[in-house]
Structures are given as structure tokens and as C-alpha cells.
């Protein structure tokens, strides 16, 4: 897969996440956050397991213990991100959540340098801040006073950043991105259900009421989107992937306009344009600079 195709795969993941945000928020009317996370990723595990088994059957190499440990750690990070985001939605606004989650765009290149000494292409730094500015404008250009939910959402952004960095390292190294995805789903589902059993009331009526949201978030914005993320990140860096995945904000606004009749103000349109500019800069400028540095 070429880097350009991988970036398109990441854009598709961003689109599926953008469509899934409504499901995440409306499900909270019937379920606690941990139960929703657990059920969502149980569905994701079951939906993608046949593809992981097929990938394993066609692989010529076995996964090592270190691979499985890494996959499990990525599952823990996924649970941390999903649980803190869902819990944050209880006490923060959708506007604040959308912007604060997008902080991962800036966190990823910094953490990649700190953890792995992996320096991104120079264009990634300004592009990350341009994308963050776009998310800021898209979310309304203002934050209410920070609540507990806001701080939980900032923690969520940190978990997402770490998850992207470790996926970028281990999806390519293991050559088993679908197995990685399904393992992280299973770990996340187990942690979510165990936490829900300990902390939340579990009612069959609530599960039935939220079944459409659980199924959509499990199969599409969960199983398919996160698997596309793992596949796409085999062929690009974590910093570049973060910028492409930030298109989630643009798609959320687009689908909100299409299906809910929402309309963006002028600042929101400028925000969409900035995110699109950042994506195009990361896609076009690095190979352009490489050609210029080639033999004359």
C-alpha cells in the first residue's frame, strides 16, 4: 500500500468516527459510559474476529510474546481514551469535547520525539498547529470554564496520542494490523464490562434502548474505523496519521449538516478549510521536498 492510499484509509476512518459521535452521545441517555464502551467493543471484537483469523491463517510468521504484550497495552490505551471521553461527555459540552479531544494532533509529534526520538517531517509541526486551530474554530472558537469533564477529555487526548504512537510502531513491525485491532478491542471490551459491573447499574431495558447506537458504534465507528486506523498506520508516521484522523471534526460537521440540519457559522467553515489545508500540506509537501533534494 502506498503512503497516499494509506492516508485515504485514515481519512475514511476519520469519516466513520465523525458519523459515530452522535451515537456516542445519545447512548448516554440509556447506559453508563463504561457499559457502553464495553458493549461497543464486544461488538467490534465479534465483527472483526473472522478477518483477524483469516489474517492469521495467511501469515507465515508467528507473533512473539512482545507483540502480544504490545497489542494488550494498545488495548489498555484504547480503553483509557474511550472511557475518559465517554465519562467526560457527562459533564462537558459537545463543543468542548470536540476541541479538547483534538489536542492529540499536537501531542503526537511531541510524544513521538520524547518516547522514540522519532522526529517527524518539518512540515508536520506547523500543520499540526494549523489543524488544531481549525478544530478550535470548528468547535465554536471558545471554551466554557473547564469542568471535570473537560479535564477527562484532555486525558482522553493523551491516551489517543499514545495509542497512535504505539500502533504506528507495532502495526508495521508485526505485519498483523487486523490482529492488533481485534486484540485491542477485546482488551477494551473486557476492561469496560468489568468496570461497569463494579460501578454502574446494568439494566436490560437500557441495553435494548441503546442497541442501535451500540451496533453502529461497535461495527462501523469501532470495529471498521479502528481497524482501518491500524492498517493505514502501517504505511505512514503517527504524526501524519494524527493530522489525517483530525478530519473526524470536519466529517462530524458535514454529517451534522446533512442529517441533523445543523449549519456551520463562518468561523466553522474557516476551521474546515484550515484542517483541509493541514491535510493537503502533509500529503503534498514531503514528497515535493524529497524530489527537490534528488539528483539534479
Automatic annotation (TrEMBL):
Membrane-spanning parts: 33-53, 73-91, 97-116, 123-145, 151-168, 180-199, 205-228, 240-260, 266-290
Alphabetic keyword roster: Cell membrane, Membrane, Transmembrane, Transmembrane helix
Subcellular location: Cell membrane
UniProt keyword Cell membrane present: yes
Pfam family, one: EamA
InterPro entries: Diverse_Substrate_Transporter, EamA_dom, EmrE-like
Main location: membrane
Ranges of residues in domain EamA: 7-139, 149-281
One cellular-component annotation, GO: plasma membrane
The keyword Transmembrane appears for this protein: yes
Cross-referenced SUPFAM superfamilies: Multidrug resistance efflux transporter EmrE
Topological type in the membrane: Multi-pass membrane protein
PANTHER family in alphabetical order: EAMA DOMAIN-CONTAINING PROTEIN (PTHR42920:SF5), OS03G0707200 PROTEIN-RELATED (PTHR42920)
Protein name: EamA family transporter
Protein species of origin: Nitratireductor arenosus
Organism classification: Bacteria, Pseudomonadati, Pseudomonadota, Alphaproteobacteria, Hyphomicrobiales
Amino acid at each position: 500500500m502506498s503512503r497516499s492510499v494509506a492516508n485515504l484509509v485514515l481519512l475514511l476512518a476519520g469519516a466513520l468516527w465523525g458519523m459515530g459521535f452522535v451515537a456516542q452521545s445519545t447512548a448516554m441517555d440509556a447506559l453508563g459510559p463504561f457499559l457502553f464502551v464495553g458493549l461497543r467493543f464486544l461488538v467490534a471484537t465479534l465483527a472483526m474476529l473472522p478477518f483477524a483469523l483469516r489474517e492469521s491463517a495467511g501469515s507465515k510468521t508467528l507473533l512473539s510474546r512482545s507483540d502480544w504484550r504490545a497489542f494488550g497495552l494498545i488495548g489498555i490505551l484504547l480503553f483509557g481514551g474511550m472511557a475518559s471521553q465517554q465519562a467526560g461527555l457527562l459533564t462537558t459540552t459537545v463543543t468542548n469535547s470536540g476541541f479538547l479531544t483534538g489536542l492529540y494532533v499536537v501531542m503526537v509529534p511531541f510524544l513521538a520525539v520524547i518516547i522514540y526520538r522519532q522526529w517527524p517531517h518539518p512540515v508536520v509541526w506547523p500543520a499540526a498547529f494549523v489543524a488544531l486551530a481549525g478544530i478550535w474554530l470548528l468547535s465554536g472558537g471558545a471554551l466554557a470554564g473547564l469542568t471535570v469533564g473537560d479535564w477527562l477529555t484532555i486525558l482522553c487526548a493523551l491516551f489517543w496520542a499514545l495509542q497512535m504512537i504505539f500502533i504506528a510502531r507495532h502495526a508495521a513491525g508485526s505485519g498483523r494490523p487486523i490482529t492488533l485491532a481485534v486484540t485491542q478491542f477485546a482488551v477494551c471490551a473486557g476492561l469496560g464490562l468489568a468496570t461497569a459491573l463494579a460501578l454502574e447499574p446494568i439494566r436490560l431495558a437500557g441495553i435494548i434502548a441503546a442497541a442501535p447506537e451500540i451496533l453502529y458504534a461497535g461495527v462501523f465507528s469501532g470495529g471498521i474505523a479502528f481497524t482501518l486506523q491500524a492498517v493505514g498506520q502501517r504505511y505512514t508516521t503517527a504524526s501524519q496519521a494524527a493530522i489525517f484522523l483530525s478530519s473526524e471534526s470536519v466529517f462530524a460537521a458535514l454529517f451534522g449538516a446533512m442529517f441533523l440540519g445543523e449549519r456551520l457559522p463562518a468561523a466553522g467553515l474557516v476551521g474546515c478549510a484550515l484542517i483541509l489545508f493541514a491535510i493537503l500540506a502533509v500529503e503534498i509537501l514531503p514528497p515535493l521536498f524529497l524530489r527537490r533534494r534528488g539528483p539534479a
